[in-house]
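Incident review: delayed structure delivery

Summary: a single-chain prediction request sat in the queue longer than the usual turnaround. Root cause was a stuck worker, restarted by the on-call engineer. No data loss occurred. The affected request and its eventual output are reproduced below so the record is complete for anyone auditing the incident later.

Affected input:
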Amino acid sequence: MTNTNDFRRYAYQYDTTYLINSFDVSSAQAAAPKLRPQEKPDKLKVRENKKLKSRSELKKEQKASFSKTVRIISVAVICLGMICLVLHSMALKNELTREISTKQTEIANAQSEYISLQSQLNSLVSISAIDKNAVEKLGMTKIKSNQIQYMNVEEYKAARKKAAEKKKAEAEKKAAEAAAKAKSNK
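Output delivered after worker restart:
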């Protein structure tokens, strides 16, 4: 026959509260130490301060306590200022990080648009597209070998120079005739 304590001990063997409750002091090898009887605290005694402090001692203590208070307040203000600076720098860092990420996104979008436009340009500028456009829209035909003419550059320059000199001479002649007409009209 088992009693409920035994069942609990086996059911909750890893639970410390049941282990402590089931601990049998009499079966332990060493007996638990006995507690010391608690002493009743003595009644508080009020003692009168028989030594009086002088004014200079009081002022000295006041100055010391004031300087300690000022030091504590200044350290607290400095700590608060440093915390505020750290929080401000973290907020600024977060804002700049967000701006950087938006700019990087814009750059990536612009690069993808550039690639898209570059591929469109390449398709429009390709030789086959130019040939197709010239034949279909402009009605042009491909050049034939009998249409090719070769020019001597030196001869072309000499002919241009001669034509320019001829125009200049004609212009001078017209100017002289106009001047002669103007003299005769006077």
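Verification: The chain has a mean pLDDT of 82.
Action items: add queue-age alerting; document worker restart procedure.
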